Structure formats: structure tokens, C-alpha cells
Amino acid sequence: MASVDRPGQGGVLPFFVYGTLRPGEVNHRLFLRGRTTAEEPARLPGAVLYEGPGYPYAVERAGSEIAGSLITPAPGAYAELLASLDLLEEYAGPGSPGNVYDRVAREAVRGDGGRVRAWVYLAAAPLAVRLARSGREIPGGDWLRR
């Protein structure tokens, strides 16, 4: 899967969120409330979830999928929301050695089976390797049901 990091290349994309940014969770209230036009259940194929210190990490893995929500930013809120979420997720740009997460464009699956490209924050490569070796996987890939 190719990643896209510039909104101009992929257009304005919704966000696939799978942890504390999901509706009802603490970071949803802090970062997303009042800044979205749609929030719907969705799945992200090709990923698994690992426990983190109070939040999960998604890591790519073929044959698996995780549960989350597809978040569509409100008109005029996209640029500010993108910057805020990059800061929250400790994402400084493509290939930055300080990244905790990498923001990449992936295909999410809506509840009705429709597919849509969305931004998702995946564990940065060095962390993903550590998690695959010794992390605690969240059974079923759903942070809310852990």
C-alpha cells in the first residue's frame, strides 16, 4: 500500500481513528467534538492493535483488521484538525526519526461495505518492530472491547 502524506495529492481525506479519538473517548472530546460532519463505524483491513500506555498502536499485518470510526472533518476545520492530530500523535512528517506514529493514507471499509481512503496513524517503523516482537496484542482488534 502506498502512503500519501500531502493533502494536495490525495485531496481532503477523512480520518480512520481506532483508540482515544473514537466517539465517547477522551481525545474525541478534546480534539474532534464540534469539528466533524460525520462519524461512522468502520474497519481497517491489514492491521492489528497493540496495547500502549493508555492508548493503542496500530501496526500493519496482512490478514487482520481493526475496528474504529471514520471521521469526516467539518468544512473549514480540516487544516487545523490535521495539524492538531499530527501534534497529538507525535507525527513530524514523513520519515522523521522522532515520529511515534506515521500518518498514512489507507483504505477503510464502511459498515455498508463501501471503501474510502482515509488518514490513519500507524505505529512508526521502529516501534512497530518492537511491538511485533514483544507487544501485547488486543484480541479482536477493537480498543473499546479490550
From TrEMBL:
Pfam families on file: GGACT
Superkingdom of the source species: Bacteria
Protein's name according to its UniProt entry: Gamma-glutamylcyclotransferase family protein
Organism, as annotated: Streptomyces racemochromogenes
CDD domains on file: GGCT_like
Residue ranges occupied by any Gamma-glutamylcyclotransferase AIG2-like domain in the UniProt entry: 15-144
